[in-house]
Amino acid sequence: CQVDGDVWLAPEEVSKIADYLDVSSIDDFRKKYVRAEISPSSSSSSSDGGKLQSWMCLKRKKGSCVFLDASGKCGIYDVRPVQCYTYPFWPSLLEDSEDWMEESVLPDDVALGTDDRHWSPELGGCEGIGRIIDAVAK
């Protein structure tokens, strides 16, 4: 959430988040929160009743997700995108234990050892996922 990276919303997620935020129209949602869009055609609606077909990439706010508030909490947590609620269990991280461990960082209240790291804006990471590997190995 606090690392520069793209978050893409599927068409059904766009509508759900817009409704949750009480945004009056998809155009208003686009203007306020979207920095890129991919549509199957030049139009954002289809011939089947105007159903939204576009995938939308969220804007960033100082490198963080546009929906992250000043205290670091997600403003759309209840309707967050699949990409967000499945992290860190993405296939790209699960396929290789080295990639998984590279993503692993320690919580801020744990002292660093020689090979350990905490989360940083440059490197990102997920607190505690290394502990999942440790627990499974035991």
From TrEMBL:
This is YkgJ family cysteine cluster protein. InterPro entries: Puta_zinc/iron-chelating_dom. It comes from the Eukaryota. It comes from Eucampia antarctica.
